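User: I'm writing a tutorial on reading structure tokens. Could you give me a worked example: one chain, its sequence, then its tokens, then a sentence or two explaining what the tokens reveal?
Assistant: Sure. Here is the example chain.
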Amino acid sequence: MREGHQGTGPGAITPDGCAVELYARLPAGAEPDIVAAAVPEGARILELGSGVGRMTHPLLERGFDVTAVDESAEMLERVRGARAICSPIEDLDLGERFEAVLLASFLVHAGDSEVRRSLLRTCARHVRQDGCVLIQREGADYHTDLPRERVDPSGFTVRIVSSVPVGDGVNSVRAEYEFPDAVWTQTFRARPLTDAQFEEALSEAGLRADRPLTDDGTWVRAVPRSCGGGR
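And here are its predicted structure tokens:
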């Protein structure tokens, strides 16, 4: 298990505290539509941190060519219809470039700054010069409006219970997922990023923010810095 990460509940738990069975139950929500609206029809997408295919499968159904990458073999066993690659994202180098690279699940907020740098370098290494990187950010009140909970229409409750500073700008976050027949918890480390810090992180990797994809700014389209055009 990675330092500061842990998970509880039925089934296999990945090194970052994610429960495979839990993620197999979570709905995709609006996220595949956000991605589909931001990339060309039928685009080749590199999905970094695909997990069990929560977004992979809806994107395949929309006609995209998806390469799913995850470090957990147990997660990838649930992926169907996509090219699947078991590898840490930080080490990935496929020697090819894609029209779109997807970095969801707040991975850009990795508590370890060097991990974040490696994730973004992987994005830059695999995106075409005329392509884009789609990044999911935490909301403005992610670490402050706590505790909070949301009841999903499908019948489960997700709670962000706490976010406790552990030093160097990093918080330890605890989440709970309660289903009628099972409960899972996940504790992980996350680094809040101001807009300026986010822009700096992109720039360091050779990327720049192009435009927000959602009104709340939690999804952002980034492009290679040398790409023409403006925001």
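What the tokens reveal: The mean pLDDT is 96. The domain at 15-140+193-224 is CATH 3.40.50.150 (Rossmann fold).
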